[in-house]
Each structure stands twice: as structure tokens, then as C-alpha cells.
Amino acid sequence: MHKAGLAHFYFYFRDAEKQSRHGFLSSLLVQICNWSAPFHGILSDLYSTHHHGSQQPSDSSLIRCLKDILRLSGQETVYIIADALDECPEREKWFLPYLVRLMDRYSKNASPTVKLFVTSRVQAGIQRALDTVPKIEIQASNVDADIKAYVESELESRIASGVLELRDPTLIETISASLAALLPTLTSLIEQSIYTPLSVKVFYTRASTGKSSLDPKSSFHPGLTLTPGRPPLSKMLDNTVSRTIGLRSNDEKITGMVVAVCGPESLVDDVACAVNNVEAANRDQVGGIEIHEE
Fold first, then answer.
1. Is the pTM here over 0.70, yes or no?
2. DSSP label at 4?
């Protein structure tokens, strides 16, 4: 019987270890060796020669170990998935040259023992390095239906488990349609907010407020929550003011806060009321609060 194994690595831009060559190679080795005893033996030898884990192996040692495993693979096919390669800051310095060498050695013969699958945004350097391999381009418009189905599934799951409760059963279609269109953009904004962390809270009305928001461990990005009822504007603003005051150093003066609002007149009035209710002392400490209305 033909055997195959899968190793996957996600280049996560917020985690330096998940962008490095060492992290990539270590992850691949652990995953590959988990499904083959002979492969596990090779990794065990590496472990032993580095004082049973007390000494970190060099990148060169990890590469040699991976080469030994791939030479031993025989009829076993190794599938390697490199996800979000564009998030790797040193991709053109080390990863792409290594990937090309790996393909030349193991993936271009009649019966390849290594098969590679790489995902990435469109980047000139990546396109140049992989110009000879087959490509599949996915347009955002082609996945709208998949995103909508995903959001509907998440909502139905939360309702069934009691985490989420809707008074109006038809509201699920409204929420899923609205959120599905925005989900890729909101998630992208959250993931790109490295130096100024961003969170997005989506509130929906005409719903019971007796249940909590979505579990932060749900499949949505942890920075994105869905909550029934109207937003507690005064509480949210007070919390933001307090955090801003807490960030100030002794010799630093905060020069003001801006609260932006876009929506119906009633929402603008509620925001203005929340701003007016901020204690005068706190307002002075943040240098004043200005409302910007779209």
C-alpha cells in the first residue's frame, strides 16, 4: 500500500518563531517523524547528538536531518504545505532558494517523493522564484459563497450550543450576509495591526441580550467578537480613556482623543452623550475628546 504523510507550516507574522527557518524546519521534522518509525529514528539520533535536547541544533543540522529522511522515504510521499509565504520577511533570502533546491531534487522526477503546496498573496519575488510551477489564482469574488456558508455555520453552531440567542429567526440570514461580506477585510485589518493592536466588536440588535458574545476561542479571529444588543458606549469609552491614561509616561502629555462615528443620527447622539458623560478630570488627562462624524 502506498503511504503518504503531511507536514504543514503557517508563516504567522506576529510570531517570530513562525517566520524563521529554524521554526519551519523544526516543525516539518516533528510532523514528518510522527507518522513513520524509521523517520522517527533519524530525528532521535539528532536529539541524542545534541545532549538529549539540552543543546539546540543548528539550521544546518536540521537541513541534514530532513535530507536523510527524504532519502529514506522510498515509496512514501511527503506532502509539505507552506501557508502564507508572503508573511515570511526573509523568504527571498533563504526560503525560496531552499524551496527551489528541494523541488529540483525531489519533486521533478516521474515519481516524486516530495510534493509541495505553497499559498501566498501575489508578490513579485515569489512569482519569479516559482514561475515554472503550476499556479491557481483565487479571486476574492470566487470565495464569497464559501465565506457566507462558513459564517452561517458558525452562527448556527453558536445558537445550537446556547452561546448565541436570536429572537428573530430570520436575523441569522441578515447577520451572515452582512458579516460574510466584511469578514475578510476585518480579519485582515486585525492581523495587520502589529504596533497598534486592533479589535473589532460587532453588535447586532433585535436579539436577546441574555447570552454572552461569541466564545473568543471560536473559529472567528480572536480579535473579532459578535455580541447581541446595543454597544455599551459609555462603558467602552470609559475603558478606552482609562487605558490611554495608563499608557502615559510621567513626562509625556497626551494631546487628545478622537471618537469617530458613522451611522444614523440616533447613533451619533448616543456617542455624543457618552463623550459628554466622561468625567472632566479624565477628559483633561487625555487632552480632551473630539467627535468626528462621517
1. no
2. E
